[in-house]
Specification:
Distance between the termini: 53 Å
Order of helices and strands: HHHHHHEHEEEEEEEEEEHEEEEHHH
Strand content: 25-35%
CATH architecture of one domain: Orthogonal Bundle
CATH superfamily of one domain: DnaJ domain
CATH topology of one domain: Helix Hairpins
Number of strands: 15
Length: 379
Amino acid sequence: MAAKKDYYETLGVAKSASDEDIKKAYRKMAKQYHPDANPGDAAAEEKFKEVSEAYGVLSDGNKKAAYDQYGHAAFDQASGGFYNGPGVDIGDIFSSFFGDGGLSEMFGGSRRRGGPRRGADLQMRLNIKFEEAVFGAVKDVQMQTWEACGTCKGSGAKPGTFPETCKKCKGSGKDRITQQTILGYMTTEVTCSACKGEGKTIKDPCVECRGQGRVRVTKTLQVTVPKGIDDGQSIRLSGKGEPGEKGGDSGDLLITMNISPHKVFKRDGTNLYLDVPITIVQASLGDEILIPTLDGSEERYNVKPGTQPGTIVSLRGKGVPSVRNNRNVGDLVVKLNVAVPTQMNEKQKEILRQFNEAMGDDYKNHKKKWYDKLKESFK
């Protein structure tokens, strides 16, 4: 997954920029990339999300301080991030600039305050074994998320009581402010300060959730790890993120894989790699050997007489299945390494001396002939 872009770079401002400069930069880019101004433009929509996320952090003093010190890690809960403050509501940012309608009204749309709101997406990392990534697995995963408060059934009000229609805005979620200007009296609408735009207030908040209507819980999910997934790849579980508000859809859960290395096998894509030692005698005379595979079985292989050190052989279909199509399986690539003895007794040494004499001058002079060829190549 691609690394996040620096928030200051996203807004095109220096790290020393003032709050006003950050606000001006965001306002300009939000107008430029807003989806209502760029219908059907996926790139503009993605850019709009990036600048909104950047402003949501840099416009908040606490978040900005955490970001300046720790970067994106301060907000990545899956990687040990510590910041647990409230999330960023893009609509609230727009309201502070343009009134309750935000940019949507400028482009002919509308935004309903207090309506259904989709839950936030969650991210986490999952540590799995090398074999689990190759063959797949089912893992139990614990995660922290929000769920509707069981005491107040998500209303936020103390049991036996109910949220009341805001007396200040009469349930509209908006305040109307009239001001005299050089052009006459002008009326604008802003978010109601009493109900924060929800249209309702809670007189007696629920003790369990303190009026939020939701509580933090730890859940255990069963996650199916697909065969062939590679290190750093992710799976998305739709609807397993934070629950929505007021009937909104739940967000998604994105799980990124951390795969532990194997002691013997190595992996590159769908191929596995293995070094197999053979003796000088096996390399010289040939032999049938057993090559271990990742699933615990063994494959028979006939070493040819005269096999040289570093010879590569491939066992077809003994590698890793493709995560996109499990019928496509890579190979097990084996490197045959000739093991040279490091300790020999006098009898063994004498046998090797006799062997060397028996091979004749052609064998004993092979190094000299090779050196002569090397010198010839430079002429």
